[in-house]
Amino acid sequence: MVYFQKMTPEGYKQIEDEIARLKKDRPRRIKILQEARSLGDLSENSEYTTAKMELGHLQSRLRYLGKQLKYAQIIEKNEDGKVDLGSTVKILFEGDDEPETYKIVGRMEADLEAGKVGFDSPLGQAMMEHVAGDTVTVEAPAGSYDVKILEVG
Q: Alpha-carbon distance 72 to 4, whole Å?
């Protein structure tokens, strides 16, 4: 069974950009490793060990991101007024006076500080397929709470 990673077009582009940046940095890392190798005894060469480890991390990250793109399922925002991947949602938390706005994104794109909520997070799951005017109950590990959906864009 193949598991596809749902993401927005913007999330896909972010991964492509990171891959490009890492590939651009790879020759520099290889050069650092070669220079460290030329310093002599590798068993006591901390520069060599560090350079080898950093290049390994870069290669590992490239493989990981490549798999993310390979198994990506890009979801375009629907226009039916329901909360879905790619929607921007203005909500009001129970007991709050100020509404907050979040974009519903894929798991890899989620960043609460940047206003991006994963569709599979407790908040994201509760809002999916609902429309403006609905009040949903979020079942979170710390307890449940209600959220009113004010706008879906």
A: 6
Distances (CA, A) of 72 to 2, 51, 110: 11, 31, 15
Task: Domain count for the chain, please give it.
Answer: 2
SS3 at position 132:
coil
CB 147 within 8 A of CB 99: no
What is residue 61's three-state secondary structure?
Answer: helix
Q: pTM score > 0.85 for this model?
A: no
Of 149 and 153, the structure prediction assigns the larger pLDDT to 149
pLDDT digits (tens, 9 = 90+) for 48-61: 889 999 999 999 99
Q: Which of 32, 48, 74 is the last residue of a domain?
A: 74
HSE-CB at 57 with a 13 A cutoff on CA atoms is: 8
- Alpha carbon distance 7, 85 (integer Å): 8
